[in-house]
What we know:
Largest sheet: 2 strands, antiparallel
Oligomer: single chain
Strand content: under 5%
Number of strands: 2
Helix content: 55-70%
Amino acid sequence: MSFLNSLLLTLIKALHTIINNYALTIIVFTLLIKLLLMPLNLKSRRSTMRMTSVQPKMQALQEKYKDDQEKLNQKIQELYRKEGVSPLGGCLPMILSMFILFAMFYALRTFANEQLVTQFITFYHHPEIDPHTLVEPFLWIKNLWMPDTPFSTYLPDVASLQLVDYQVWNEVSAKLAAAGTIPQALSFANRDAMMTFINDVVTPFVASDVYAPYVAPITGLGNLSILGLFQFSIYQEGNGWFLLPILSVITQVFMQKLTMKNTQLLESQAGSQKMMIYMMTVMSLYFCASYNAAFALYWVISNVYAIIEQIGFNKYFELQDRKAAKAEEVGIL
């Protein structure tokens, strides 16, 4: 998995050298990945349609051999061979997409951590710089490497910086020192050394007059809570409008509903499918609201593409069915 993470991160950085905008890079990269997977997805869709077509026969066998599980399994396997279908035929693209999803999450989190450390260290050593010039904006989002939500600051805060691995601090500061941006690199031996730096250097600077205005909550809206369980603040320099998390939920539900609509499922399978919709919806909201907007953008673009692809496949198969029906009719006549 780490190899795939590194590969995706390397490809994104390489594509960025051509496009020179990370938001557009992520959009283009997402579309390229999806286009490469399209032949597999088309094959998967065909397999799913074939499985759907044998569902009535499956139900008949289950009713006939409901008291003989061994015989039922034998007859089902015979049915699969006769119809030329496999229950696992549509799984490969889904599994591959999940691997890429999680790999993209880790790759973009790694890159986000590098960018946040770069932004903080540069501003720490050059407080005269306008910090808006240090971040990567995208439409309504001020900093692509922080969450798209008014409940997040656009500059990295203490909470986000202390989650970064100490080796990232060392590597990023070494690059900045080599470029002459800062006087010398950091050399943390372990996480404890990094946390000492966070407490002694980062926290006081974030609280200083130079940095504090960019991470200050709106007066009267700081430290809000929901049922006493969830604490949050709305910031004067909030990073976004929560649009990507909302879009991730809408597109996730629509995509999975569209998939269910075009697949005939047994009652037990339909229940499992609905549970999957709920799980994926909650997961999309959590990840897209809690982590960097770059990953949320990837998730939304992936869903939008999947919806368009699904509609396109449906139209294609409808056309194929009409042609087959027409050919049969002509043959009969």
